[in-house]
Design goal:
The structure is a homodimer of 194-residue chains. Chain A has 194 residues and is an alpha/beta fold. Chain A has 5 helices and 11 strands; from the N terminus they run H-E-E-E-H-E-H-E-E-E-E-H-E-H-E-E. In chain A, helix 2 (32-45) crosses helix 3 (61-69).
């Protein structure tokens, strides 16, 4: 998506160790017009999929998912929660997600009543790198017996294996921008041709 | 706002100790049409205010804030982050917020470049009870030298002092539903007449 690539080039900041900061427009401050355009693009890419629910994970995916939902007939958005304490009443699906940013494993939950076998789910997140968060969401959807219609990502780090690994497993992964390489010295960013 | 009050009566669950669960439509699963209608109502209430930025706090305010921003000329949304580790480079405003739900104090940050004296800010959150999160946001806005145009809340607990205390301090607080009392035994909810 040209609009997003141009914005990343203009306002993204490349840091050492494969870190790309996009907090001025995507995940700390959010440019609502950009998010709306991204939502329309997700709809174009998944136009043929019978999506009736969008699932994301707190925190940075929520705004993107809500703005996208407008383009999917206002379908409901569910965000998986990073649990501080697991409520063992049996009314939640639980999985574990490795956070490379924070260097720890945390529990992620969704209430069982919010997703079930009747659901056709689009998974949305702001970034895909190793795919840890997405694998957690896939685990939750699998536990619920719901159907994964696709995975929509704002920015994929093409130099990390998450996205291509999920494609090889047969998932339909659509990333609006795929960064093939970044140079923290020069700030240069190369995108994969989509 | 009748639509929200009716939804709370229908799908909200009253728990002991003043807890109201609205996860099926507001802050775990989000009803996007409802959030859009709430955004339009915030715009109606603050139509005369020169708002150019919306500030919220992760996590539950983000979806509401993004959907509201569409009605404020797509103004940018910033969410304050609950910091796991404070980056002491001086490029962030920092405050402390007491979480009564989690029984601890955590640091909340906003990057300085995202808010400044030129900003006229609408603060948005899903709930107001003691007002702890909102006071944290007000502290951040004050540090930035920005102007608070108002405070927009989805559900205010009128039996807790946060909202009325902020009104007494001169802030313009508009809550779409104010719960005056709740009964965990019967599930009955009484709303303040607005």
């Amino acid at each position: 998506m040209k609009l997003l690539e141009e914005r990343i080039r203009r306002d993204g900041v490349v840091k050492e160790e494969g870190v790309l900061k996009v907090g001025s427009f995507l995940n700390h401050q959010m440019d609502i017009e950009l998010l709306d355009a991204m939502g329309a693009e997700f709809k174009r890419l998944f136009a043929d999929a019978p999506i009736n629910k969008i699932l994301t994970i707190e925190t940075s995916g929520i705004g993107i998912a809500c703005m996208a939902a407008r383009h999917f007939d206002n379908c409901p958005v569910v965000f998986a929660k990073k649990a501080k304490s697991i409520n063992l009443t049996g009314d939640q699906y639980v999985t574990k997600v490795q956070s490379f940013t924070h260097g720890k494993v945390f529990d992620v939950i969704v209430e069982k009543r919010l997703i079930g076998p009747e659901d056709h789910v689009l998974l949305i997140d702001d970034f895909m790198a190793m795919g840890a968060a997405m694998n957690g969401l896939l685990d939750l959807v699998g536990s619920a017996g719901a159907t994964v219609e696709g995975i929509g990502i704002a920015i994929e780090k093409g130099f990390q294996p998450g996205g291509d690994s999920l494609r090889q497993r047969g998932y339909r992964v659509e990333s609006l921008a795929i960064v093939e390489s970044m140079d923290a010295q020069t700030g240069a960013i190369t995108f994969r041709q989509l």
